[in-house]
Design brief:
Layout: E1 21-23, E2 35-37, H1 44-59, E3 62-68, E4 78-81, E5 84-91, E6 98-103, E7 108-113, H2 120-130, H3 139-148, E8 182-188, E9 191-200, H4 205-218, E10 222-233, H5 235-251, E11 254-258, H6 262-271, E12 279-280, H7 283-288
Parallel strand pairs: 2-7, 3-5, 9-10, 10-11, 11-12
Antiparallel strand pairs: 1-2, 3-6, 4-5, 6-7, 8-9
Helix pairs in contact: 2-3, 2-5, 4-5
Length: 289
């Protein structure tokens, strides 16, 4: 516990809330960000304890947070969290959309900070981009790309997307019952072709993830994803493809993307294909080469 030489640590008047946080499950040395966080307000005393506890559980004890001075109501030097004092380091040079959690062993977890007033769709899109295993965009650039992604016209109401516990982003979440996950499978000379159709967004990505991971477990040496039938593609789709590629590499499967629809191409033009499976213009090329 840090020594209280100047003033006692700031104490929150309310219990720590479950943070709207996404951490990269597969950290990558080349990644600029390790995840993203969407605070509910600009009050550091109310918002930071829940963040610290969540990082403690996943990555080990935090002893220091580095933050920018912009966007926060006040700037305490010490913060009481679970019986210990966390030091807060405020800097004019730190971007307002970045927070760095430093562990006792010196490890640094860099998180995108989504503005509290961001729209629900833009916020969760930004969090999906932030956890891409090989993201190379700075925090501000990630928010810019998320803001360019329009929400699906068939997306469920915002009240269905997120509760105080962030249930939508639990690992066991399920797609909204009104959204259909459409995947057809075809075997061609020992190679598996999956034709994906419909929207890939915040609500449907969990269902697609379950289906794709099932195929990787029992599919052939090569799996091709036909994206020509995708009618909407958000940052959640990018995150899904990056996760699927990582799973395929561990399983020794040659995963390829083919025939992206105009919706897919539009987002890939903004973000690039770094960290995603190889992309082919046609299904025939992806299967044959």
């Amino acid at each position: 516990m840090a020594a209280f030489t100047r003033r006692p640590p700031a104490v929150s008047e309310t219990p720590p809330s479950v943070p709207r946080l996404r951490l990269n499950p597969i950290p990558h040395r080349g990644a600029v960000l390790d995840g993203g966080w969407w605070p509910r307000s600009g009050d550091p005393v109310a918002e930071l304890p829940g963040l610290v506890l969540a990082i403690d559980d996943r990555l080990g004890p935090v002893h220091l947070l580095e933050l920018g001075v912009t966007g926060w109501y006040h700037r305490p030097d010490l913060l009481a969290v679970a019986g210990r004092a966390i030091r807060l380091s405020w800097s004019l040079e730190m971007p307002p959309d970045l927070v760095v959690a430093v562990g006792r062993n010196g490890t640094r977890t860099r998180l995108l900070v989504v503005p509290p007033g961001a729209t629900t769709f833009a916020a969760w899109s930004a969090l999906d981009l932030a956890i891409l295993s090989t993201n190379t965009e700075k925090a501000a650039e990630t928010m810019d790309v998320a803001g360019m992604s329009p929400p699906s016209p068939r997306t469920a109401p915002e009240t269905d997307w997120e509760s105080e516990g962030g249930e939508l982003y639990d690992e066991d979440r399920r797609a909204h019952p009104s959204r259909r996950v459409a995947v057809s499978r075809e075997e061609r000379d020992g190679r598996t072709l999956l034709r994906i159709s419909g929207d890939i967004d915040l609500m449907t990505a969990p269902g697609y993830r379950t289906r794709l991971f099932e195929v990787l477990r029992d599919g052939g040496d090569r799996v091709v994803l036909d994206l020509s039938g995708v009618t909407f593609f958000s940052a959640a789709g990018l995150s899904l493809l990056a996760e699927t590629r990582a799973r395929a590499e561990r399983a020794g499967v040659d995963l390829r993307l083919a025939a992206p629809s105009a919706r897919v191409v539009r987002l890939l033009e903004l973000t690039g294909t770094h960290g995603l499976p190889p992309l082919h213009p046609t299904v025939r090329e992806a299967l044959s080469r």
